[in-house]
Amino acid sequence: MIKFFRNIRQRLLTENKFSKYLIYAIGEIVLVVFGILIALQINTWNDERKAQKVEDNFFYDVLLDLKKDNANLNYYKKFHTKRITYLDTLLTYVRNPNKTMGIKKFGMYTEPLFYTVAPTSYETTFESAKSMGEFNNFKEKQLVKDLSQYYADFVQLENSFSSITRFVENQFEPLMYKLPEGYMSEDTGMLVINEEDVQEFYNKVASIKDNRKITYDYEIILKTPNTENYLIGDMGRSYTALGKIITRQEVLTKLERALNKTIKR
User: InterPro entries, alphabetically (predicted)?
Assistant: First the structure.
């Protein structure tokens, strides 16, 4: 191709056709510039395509993380809903002293209160992209901003859950220390909600025979004024946690919809 254009230029110069040569030279320059512009445009298209692929892959991975988050939130929701039910049952017996609960039922409804949860957030994908500066090239700036706010708000869930944990450690456990734990049986953990199987623990405790012949006066705990205060305090904290869980799930659902609309796959 280059040899072809060179031959044309030489022929025009040899024939002293300068005006035609000048027109040809200008045309050749225009053609070269046009070729360069096309090449630049192709490079731009390729860069944009690569950038879009990176952005789509990021949002797709975040979508997978949000599904894991939602599974956790469903578990936390079930955990705190059940906790409120147990607290409600115990409070009913506290305020109705003529009702007899029985040591077995007392154990089954108080044991779950020893258990609390520490929330987990799947934000590795987001934090990795953030640290690598990938967001600078993203088109969906608002969506990235919304995701950033979602992950930043996770601390509210942590604070709410840790508030329950501290309350259990500082108020509930000292209250329950008044009652020896020899009343525990294989059924004591039936209402416990925990991510790991804890039944083996209760089987082990129940397998060790208690020969002390202790009378387990659980009613003294129900009649203690601190018990009512504790149950109401725990219930309030559990409702707060439940509200934050529901709010976070609502935000998560909106983010999932936005991501599904954005991902170009």
Answer: DUF6090
CB 180 within 8 A of CB 214: yes
Please give the full DSSP string across 244-256, using - where no structure is assigned.
HHHHHHHHHHHHH
Mean pLDDT of the chain: 87
Q: Is pLDDT above 70 for 31?
A: no
Backbone φ/ψ region at 133: left (φ over 0), alpha (ψ -120 to 50), beta:
left
Q: Is 6 exposed, middle or buried (0-12, 13-18, 19+ CB in 10 A)?
A: exposed
Q: What's the pTM?
A: 0.82
d(CA 260, CA 20): 59
Q: How many residues does the chain have?
A: 265
Name the phi and psi angles at 164, rounded to 5. -65, -45
Residue pair 113/169 in contact by the 8 Å Cβ criterion:
no
Residue 24: both structure tokens together: 């040809």
